[in-house]
Amino acid sequence: MTQEIRIAEAKNHVNEEVKIGAWLTDKRSSGKIAFLQLRDGSAFFQGVVLKNQVSEEVFQTAKELRQETSMYITGEIHEDSRSHFGYEIEVHNIEVVGTSEDYPITPKEHGIEFLLDHRHLWLRSKRQFAIQQIRNEMARATYEFFNKEGFIKMDPPILTGSAPEGTTELFETDYFDQKAYLSQSGQLYAEAGAMAYGKVFTFGPVFRAEKSKTRRHLTEFWMIEPEMAFTHQEESLKVQENYIAFLVQSVLDNCAYDLKILDRDPEILKRYTKTPFPRIRYDKAIEMLQGAGYDVKWGDDLGSPEETYLSEQFEQPVFVLNYPKAIKPFYMLPEEGRDDTYVCADLLAPEGYGEIIGGSEREVDYDKLKAAIEAKGLDLDEYEWYLDLRKYGSVPHAGFGLGFERAITWICHLDHLREAIPFPRMITRLKP
Ligand code: 4AD
Ligand code: MG
User: Do 3-98 and 119-419 come out as alike in CATH topology?
Assistant: First the structure.
C-alpha cells in the first residue's frame, strides 16, 4: 500500500512513492509535460506529469484539470532546489475526487470587495494560508507563554451587563426581559479571576460597535487579557514586553515558510525579540508630536496618524505611559503626585502600526472605585459584584489586553486587519 502523507511531510519521503489528497491551484502544460500547482492545507508544491511516464489517460486527465479540482495524486517525491518549498512530486496517477467549474478567484488581480465577498474561498490562497499559519502559531505560543509563567486560562462570559471600555461602542441585544451587551472586554471578569487564582489570562472574542472605518478596527476581534494579583504596573510592563518578544521569536522559529510567502524579512522581526522596549510618557509624546507639526494638545487622545508617527520614531515597540484620566476608562489607578493621569500604558508597534496593547494598574480602593464608576455615569447595580473585589481582600493588581489581529497584522506586515482573521466583521460586512 502506498503511504498517504501531507505535502508538509514531503522531506521525509524523498524518492518514495506516496499518495496525497490535494487541490489544484494552477496548471501549465505542453505536449510532453504538465506542471500542476498543488495545495493540501499543509503546504504548496508542484506536481510534474511526464507524458512518456504515465498512461495516455492520466496525461489527458492532467491536461484537463480545472482550478480547485480535488484529487488523490500518487507519485514519487523529489528534491526541487528551484522552489522555496524544496520538493516536488513526479505524478504517476491522478484520481479526481471533486470537480470544479469556473472557480471565481483566478490568478489575476481581484478587487478587495470581490475577495471579501468570496472570503470562504479566498482563504485557500497562498498568502491567506500563510497568515492563518502565523495566527495559529501565535495562539499556540500565547498558551505556552502564559502557562509557563504560571497563569491559567479563564473564560469570561460573552453576554454581559457591564461596559468596561465605555458605553458608546456596545452591541445591545434582548436577553429575555432585560438588555444584555456583547462583551467588549473580559477584563472585569479577569480581575475576579486574579483574586481567585492569582494570575489568569483570557483569550476570546470581544465586540465593539466601532463606527470608525479604519484599517485598524474590526467590530469583532480577539483579545488576550492577562490579569495579575499582587502586581504593580512595572511588573506588568515586563510581562508585556517578554510576551511580545516570545510571540515574535515563536513565529521566527516555527513559521519560516510562511514569512517567506509573505515576503516578511526575518531580520526586521529579530529586532523585536530584544527587551526592554523603550518607554516615553504621554506628556513627552505630545511634545514630540507638536515638534513634528501635529495639531495636538495635552489631553487629546492619540489617533491613528499620531500613533503611526510615534511608532515610526522607534526601532522597537514603544510604551506610552500615563495618559490623561479623561481619555481612559474608570478602573485605572491614578498616578501618585498627579491628579490628571493614570498609571497605564499603551504599547505601540513599530513600522507605523500603532497601538497593539492597552493596560494599567487597577484602582484598589472601594470608595474611589465606586466614585469613578459614578463619575462615568455607569449603573452601579451592574458593578456591585466588581466592587466586591475591593471589599474582600483587595490587593494591588495590574493587567493588559493585546488585540490579537493588531499583533498579527504587524507581525505579518499586512496593511489591514481584515486579512488577519478568517471571517472579518466590519461595519459594512457581516457576510460570509
Ligand atoms: O485598549 P483597549 O480598549 O483595552 C481594553 O479593552 C482593556 N480592558 C484591556 C485590559 O487592560 N485588560 O483594547 C485592548 C486592545 C487594543 O490595544 C487594540 O490592540 C485592540 O484591543 N483593539 C482592537 N482591535 C481590533 N479592532 C478594534 N475595534 C479594537 N479595539 C481595540
Ligand atoms: Mg486602547
Answer: no
CB of residue 421 inside a 6 A radius of ligand 1: no
Cβ neighbours for 8, distance < 8 A, ≥ 6 positions apart: 42, 43
In Å, how far from its chain's centre is CA 61? Answer: 41
Q: What angle do CA 207, 213, 214 make, to 5 degrees?
A: 95
pLDDT tens, position by position, 128-174: 999 999 999 999 999 999 999 999 999 999 999 888 888 789 999 99
Instruction: Tell the CATH topology of 119-419.
Output: BirA Bifunctional Protein; domain 2 (3.30.930)
353 residue type, one letter? Y
Burial 39-61 (b: 16+ CB within 10 A, else e): bbebbbbbbbbebeebeeebbeb
Are 412 and 420 within 8 A, CB to CB? yes
Give the C-alpha separation, 266 to 264, whole Å: 6
Verify whether ligand 1 is closer than 6 Å to residue 225 (CB atom). yes
Ligand 1: which of 206, 331, 332, 355 to mutate, most ligand atoms within 8 Å of CB? 355
**Between helices 187-197 and 380-388, what is the axis angle to 10°?**
20
Q: Is 408 in the pocket of ligand 1 (CB under 6 A)?
A: no
8 Å CB contact between 314 and 327: no
**CB neighbourhood size of 230 (10 A):** 12
Domain residue spans in the chain? 3-98, 119-419
ipTM for the predicted complex: 0.99
Q: CATH says 3-98 is which class?
A: mainly beta
For residue 95, how many other CB atoms are within 10 A of its CB?
12
Say which ligand is closest to the CA of 165: 1
Tell me if the pTM is above 0.95. Answer: yes
Parallel/antiparallel/unpaired status of strands 178-182 and 172-175:
antiparallel
CA–CA dist 185, 157 (Å, integer): 10
9-25: pLDDT as tens digits: 999 999 999 999 999 99
